[in-house]
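Troubleshooting log. The previous structure file for this entry was overwritten by mistake, so regenerating from the original sequence record. Sequence copied from the archived sheet and checked twice against the printout by T.R.
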Amino acid sequence: LNGETDIGMIGQFGVGFYSTFLVADRVTVASKHPNSDKQYLWESLNGESSFNVAEDPRGDTLGRGTEITLHLKEDCEEYADPATLERLATHYSEFVTHPIQLRTTTTEKVEIFEEDEDEFEEKKDDDELDVAEDDETPKEEKEPKFEEVTTHSWKEMNPEPALWTRDKDSITDEEHQAFYHVLSKQEHSNATTWINFNAEGNINFKSLLYLPSEVPPELQAGQLPSSNSGGLKLYVRKVLISDAFDLLPNWLMFVKGVVDSEDLPLNVNRETLQESKIIKVIYKKLVRKCIEMIRKFSEQEVKSEVELDEEGNVVEGSEEEKEHPYIEWYNKFSTMLKVGAIEDEPNRGKIMKLLRFETSKTENGKVISLKEYVDNMKEFQNDIFFISGLSKEEVEKSQFMEKFREKDIEVIYMTAAIDEYLVQNIRDFDGKKFSAITKEGIKFGDEDEDLEKRRDKAYQKKFKPLTKWLKTLYGNNIMKVAISKRLGSSPAIISTGEWGHTANMQRIMQAQAFGSNDGMMMAMKILEINPRHPFILKLLEGAPPEEEEEGAEPAKVDDATVDAAWMIHDMALLNGGFAISDPKAYSQRMTRVLKSSLDVASLTLEEEIDPPVEDDEPPEIDMDGLDGINLQD
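Regenerated output below.
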């Protein structure tokens, strides 16, 4: 045969064989058909356009089969190292059907046991022996001798079966867990659940996906995984193509599994395939199946634990409700699901149903879904109410919760930092708008609109002098002063604009590495005053009139009233979740209040005391508990 013969080398021999010339100068293939008496040898040199086929001069050395010999280049001798070959074989051909065996050579030192010549001497009769005890001498111990022994053995590189090719009903849980350990390389961590499916359509592929029980190291460190390298592997006819394809979005990078397609070519180019329609089809299907896997896991029935009596009957009142395993998993991976709800708009509705939250009506750390919250809403309620903060303890004590407890309205507690980003990007669920109770314009849905309008008009007129003066006094510290419709025991509180940041969001943004105090990060503060509170009514008495008479001197507000107004402002800040804006001024006001309440005439410090000089005295020893101890010893 010569180079002009029309033979597609890649098509005939496959990509794997063609790539041998990347590491070899010369390749020889010996082959023997069982029905033929002759063994043939194929040979080709790297870079040549021809190859030679002839009868093997060595004769029949195989009996049957094929033997491929690579004559490695000088700079590729590392591929003759058993450790390198084992790493490559287990990485790319771990699930190939045909067994791959590697010949390993080991050399060990083995001790040589020599036979003692005295054992072969004839023993003399006892009566001929006359040995005295003094004549007995110990035998000399001989140093052991060793020799090096070289052994050869064959080690199978791909003993693990391709589990995804089997009928899913025939695979046991133990087999799934063992296969997950192989995929994840984690022997001490099991899979939580899994899904096995065949996709048919424009492209056919099989896939087996696992949900891990432990979060990735990046997530434990507070960072989202940047890639799914090693997590989701793409196979073509059980041969690994790559584990670096972006087959899942960032928020699902924790999923482990395999994708195996018969429709992709073995010599696939990663950059080309990544942009192809094939990968996009696989991507969409995998995302939907991952969400389906998590949903089914969340809907699994959990049997309650009961106590049985001697007759095997259930003891009344012994039923103990077990925590759903999904909740334990969710507590670890909730951040990733919330990222998915923010970023994956096509699947947002499905992901939102997987989220769980504590509320003002849940106890002992229990959580509910958004669907359960909507089902529990009051008939008059139109919005999903939530409050954000650093912890459950903080939001439970918030002054904003007073009116909601009074009306028995459930409020969702959002205590994770990502929750703020979640509600900023997702405005509603199941047609119900998310409404932060720390913002202005809260409507419960059961108000008498006509009464509310008349009452609001009356309060606005009555407190107009106070609201006008307070806005002038506080300046840029607040956006406006409003009459509150929801405060109970508090004189005032700082809420935020409906479309601005909450206090918690401002705190999160300022805590970031590049956070600042510019206007974009600051919340729009609104001072809500309680028109029925005695403090506010007293401030109204001390406020200057709205319109002063022509020619009259401007009304002067006494310092005590100004201090009281600022202290109410500071209280409202703290109750609203904000920090004191001017700690120095706050400290000075508190000093004046303490001075007045303690009836201190002056803050001048007294002179330092000058005690007399005393002789040194030994320290007193506490003798309690030393009874029975001899101090002389």
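The radius of gyration is 41 Å. Archived copy saved in two places this time.
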